[in-house]
Structure formats: C-alpha cells, structure tokens
Amino acid sequence: MKRASLVLLMLLSLGSRAALAGPCPVKFPTSRGTGTVAGAPVEGGTQYYFKDALLNGFDCFEELSSWFPSYITSSNASNPAKETVDMAYTTDGTATFSNVVVPAPGIYTLAIRYAFATGLFQGVLNRPEGVMVNGTVMTDDLNFPVTGDFDTFNTVTIAVPLKAGQNTVQVFNVATQSISRLDSMTVTAGGSNSCSILPQTPSALSAAEDSNNAIALTWNASPAPAGCAVGYYKVFRSTTSGFSPSAANQIATVVSGTKYEDTTVTCQTPYYYTVQAVDLAGLSLSSPQSSASISACPTIGSARINVGGSEVAPFIPDVDFEGGSILSHKNVIDLSGVTNAAPMAVYQDARQGNFSYTLSGFVPGSSHTVRLHFAETYFSTAGSRTFDISINGTQVMTNYDIFAAAGAKNKAVIQQFTTNADSNGTFVVTFASVVNNSLLSAIEIN
C-alpha cells in the first residue's frame, strides 16, 4: 500500500492528482484494529479511537493508488498515535466498535470527532454517515459538515440507547463521498433524546404483485410514543410462513414513507413479509405477516451490466453479483482491438476476487451469446493475473490471462461464448482466482 503520507498529500493538493494516480497494491488490506480495545477514560465518559475500530468494506480507488478505508496520520488527532481513519472513496466502508461498555442502560451521547476538506469532491460540503447500535440503525443521515482542512477537527453528536455492559456501535458509509479523518468517538451518559417507549406495531401490512413484476408492500404508520419519533421501518422476508425476523432475512430499511417494492423476488415463489418500526428506544413487535408471489415468469432477450460501476448507457449499474470487491481508476483504455466495445467508462471500474453473476429471466434453454469485457489495468507482464471462468457450471476458460489475451496493459479485450440458459432461464457466470484476483469490467448477454 502507498504510504499514508502520500495519500494525504494527494488529498491536500488537487493539482497533483495525476502524479500519484495508478493501480492499487495487489494485496487486499485487512483491518489493523479489532474493535475490541477498551475505551480510554475521559472527563464525563469513555473515548474510543477509530484507529482501533474493526474496518471492513474495502474498495480499491486507483485515482489515489490506495484501498479505503485507510489509515492516515493527522497532527491534531486526539489519539496518541495521531492516526485517523479515512472512510471516503468506498461504497460499503464500515468502522465497528464491539466493546463499548456502559454501567447502566439508558440514553447516551456519541460525540464523533472528525476533519475534512473538500478534497476530490469539490462542492461537497457535507458528508453523511450512518450509525448502527447493537444491530439497529439509529440514522443513515448523520451530517458531517466540512471543517475547512484535514487538520481542523469538529465534533458531531447523536443520542442513542445503550444497554448495560457491552455494546456494538458501527459507523457505516451511505455514499462514496464519505467522511475522512475519523479520529475518536466519546461516549457520555445522557443526551437530548427523551424517547424511552418502544413504537407501536405497524398495522395493515399488505403484499401484492404489481405491474413491475415485483411485490409491493404497504402498511400503516406506527404512532409515535410521547417524546419519540419513528425513525424508520425494517422489512423482513422469507419463503417460510411464520419465520422469525432477524438480520439474516432483513431485506430493506425504509426511512421515508410506509411502502416498499421488492424487486428481487423469483417468479412463482411464495414470499412472506413482516415489518418492524424503530425509534430510539428500540424495535416494535413484528407486524402480522403478509404473503404474495409473482404469478408469471417474465422473459428478457438481453442484459448489459457495468460490472463494479454505475449506469453507462446501454449498460445498467452493477447488479446480480455475489462476492468480490470493486476496483475504480481513471486509466485511459485502448478500445481499438475489439468489435462493439463498451464505452471507455465501463472499463474504468471492475469487480475483482472470487465472484459470480446470476442473470435470470431468459427463456429456459434459449441460446444466447455471452460477452465478457476485460482490461488489465495493473500488471504489465503475462502470467501475473490468471483465473478460471465457468458458465452454468461448465468451465469455459482455464487460467485466463487478460494481459496475454489483449497483448498490452490498459487495452480492452472481449471473450464471448454461445451457450444456453438453464432450465430456469438463468445464466450463472463464475470467476475463480488462480494467480492474484479475477477481474471483470462488463458482462453482456445477447
């Protein structure tokens, strides 16, 4: 990994972006902290340092030649090591403290110390984060206003309920322009929140198939107890009637309104749903379950996915994947060697590691052309990255080498295969690393 000081210089000097831009180190990072370090006593409470948190959700951001979340030194940090955590440039970054200990149940104030300048996100003057306590999301919109530079620290606070003894507090990203220079979290007793009553159970939950080949859910709002406000609703789903709601079967958090459209269902499969309301005192009882299914299986003729990225017409945003991590960069890609190349922006992000894509909705058994788009943006020699590719369980490429196939670094190459959808109308495309990480930029099925 590049030294943190180099990344710091990059953030402070926008004019030098091109000088440091480049591929990330090959080695996938791990968290230095475990999240289990005991807090340090301070006046009125206990202080926890983000350098000790368990970090996860790492993304590669090649414009800064680094993985994020990242550890960066700041002379004004409160912790003795003068080390902060940068959560920017990663979609799913998390920082978790699993040993937040308080003597008695009640409302406590979390004071989070941070700093950030606009950096690479010019015009972004506020960077929101989410906060989860003991598995319950307290907010997904805690505002962190710009402090002016990366060594000027401010503090934001939120009042949350904690139980006696050990608690888990997680700060999580809600946007790629997430907060940088997270320094400390101080926990003190008391706060402005006066909510101590659980919300009432949501009523009249209804599940029904809609015109979008999805299942539409609606329910009645839970009345807010005195001193409380229902912050959001948790939506749970199972294919088993009478199931128990848990983190494993939660499919959505609805912050605004009392409706949700479930677009991830499989046709002709009964689904059962329940909803819970959440305020600062905790969770309501689960609503009575409601059930629905998609009566007919729609069919599609083609699909185009910008793997690891957002919509770049005619490619839709990254969907239908399992596993892997995202890689982003600004490398100029040579498209001259392929026919019907994707737009260059499609090759400037990718998914890497061991992962698969499951694309459904095709006519069972129908024949299609599967086109896989690649560009080697890191290695400059053959044999440095190889991997196997399978479609519906049949291996179609062994020890595939992007660089060797393209003949150069930063040059697009496409592999295509004619194959049939399975008996359910599905294509499952699997990538298994052999040497370093598998890599894919886009997938088409025509």
UniProtKB/TrEMBL annotation:
Residues 201-299 form the Fibronectin type-III domain. GO terms for cellular component: membrane. It comes from Granulicella mallensis (strain ATCC BAA-1857 / DSM 23137 / MP5ACTX8). Gene3D superfamilies: Galactose-binding domain-like (2.60.120.260), Galactose-binding lectin (2.60.120.430), Immunoglobulins (2.60.40.10). Residues 1-21 form the signal peptide. This is Di-glucose binding within endoplasmic reticulum. Belongs to the malectin family. Keywords: Carbohydrate metabolism, Endoplasmic reticulum, Glycoprotein, Membrane, Signal, Transmembrane, Transmembrane helix. It is found in: Endoplasmic reticulum membrane. Residues 56-188 form the CBM6 domain. The keyword Transmembrane applies. It is a single-pass type I membrane protein. InterPro entries: CBM6, FN3_dom, FN3_sf, Galactose-bd-like_sf, Ig-like_fold, Malectin_dom, MLEC. GO terms for molecular function: carbohydrate binding.
